[in-house]
Design brief:
Layout: E1 2-11, E2 16-26, H1 31-43, E3 52-59, E4 65-68, E5 72-74, H2 80-93, H3 98-108, E6 118-121, E7 141-143, H4 145-157, H5 163-176, E8 181-187, E9 196-200, E10 204-208, E11 220-225, H6 231-240, E12 243-246
Parallel strand pairs: 4-12, 5-10, 6-11, 7-12
Antiparallel strand pairs: 1-2, 1-3, 8-9, 8-11, 9-10
This protein binds pimeloyl-AMP and magnesium ion.
Length: 248
């Protein structure tokens, strides 16, 4: 199989502005149509036209493992304060300490948004990602077309069939299948997207409305990892090992 990644950006006077990106795992015969669809998609993005489009097409030495999608549920939550309480309760139930929860809050509410995720130890609350600025990027994940159609149908029934939800659910499901990871919390860095989630193998994918206020510029992702776990295989799994998601 092949991993196809696309990334569109535009130079501004201060920096290279990220416009949009996407990735997936595909068979050889799917490559031409996939590349066309990805290019169309980044050209039609609301953040504007890119001036550079990078496409990487990489053959995967290892065959993908199949991982079930997490169950989706949305809880009621009316404010960021409530969201914080709900998340703290769920994490405390998982034996994640207050120290670790506070460390996660600092990452998630920082306006210094990382491209990837922070890895936080569940007891001592230490940040152990090697690059604190970039974080760890979950990559090499995809879903077969028939499975994507089934997923779209079940999300449509919940009226949440958007690309944002699909992609977040795929990412969270890959991460939750990693032995060393206990839970994930995610807040979008998009100022208009105020629904976040907490996810884990046992709790599933739990959507939390109003996790942040409209116009808040912060956002991020944290993974709580088992205190004694070795970070290297976790990072290797998240970043490198090919995973195909399927409906459970
Ligand atoms: N791997 C690890 N971390 C990532 C990745 C990745 N591939 N992509 C983004 N992040 C981190 C990064 O710190 C971003 O700032 C943060 O996550 C948020 O990314 O069901 O859109 O792409 O309605 O803004 C949640 C959907 C949407 C909830 C999350 O995240 C729902 C979203 P964004
Ligand atoms: Mg975003």
């Amino acid at each position: 199989m092949w991993n196809v990644r696309i990334r569109a950006s535009r130079k501004t006077c201060v920096s290279n502005l990220h416009i949009s990106g996407a990735e997936g795992l595909y068979d050889t015969r799917e490559l031409p149509q996939t590349v066309t669809a990805y290019v169309r998609r980044v050209l039609g993005h609301s953040r504007g036209l890119p001036d550079t489009i990078n496409i990487t097409i990489e053959s995967m030495e290892q065959g993908p493992v199949s991982v079930p999608l997490l169950n989706v549920k949305t809880i009621r939550c009316s404010s960021p304060d409530r969201a914080h309480k709900i998340i703290s309760e769920i994490l405390t139930d998982m034996d994640i300490t207050q120290r670790a929860i506070s460390a996660a809050s600092r990452v998630l509410t920082s306006t210094n948004v990382m491209r990837g995720a922070s890895l936080i130890t569940a007891r001592t609350g230490l940040r152990i990602e090697p690059d604190k600025k970039r974080g760890v990027r979950v990559s090499r994940l995809g879903i077969k077309r028939a499975e994507r159609r089934k997923l779209a149908l079940s999300l449509s029934r919940l009226r949440i069939n958007t690309e944002t939800v699909q992609e977040a659910l795929l990412l969270a499901s890959k991460a939750a299948s990693c032995q060393g990871i206990l839970a994930e919390v995610c807040i979008s860095d998009d100022p208009d997207y105020t629904t976040g989630y907490i996810a884990g193998r046992d709790i599933g994918y739990v959507r939390i409305p109003n996790i942040k206020s409209r116009c808040d510029m912060h956002g991020g992702r944290v993974f709580f990892i088992r205190e004694e776990a070795d970070p290297d295989p976790i990072i290797n799994y998240l970043e490198r090992e090919p995973v195909l998601l399927c409906n459970g």
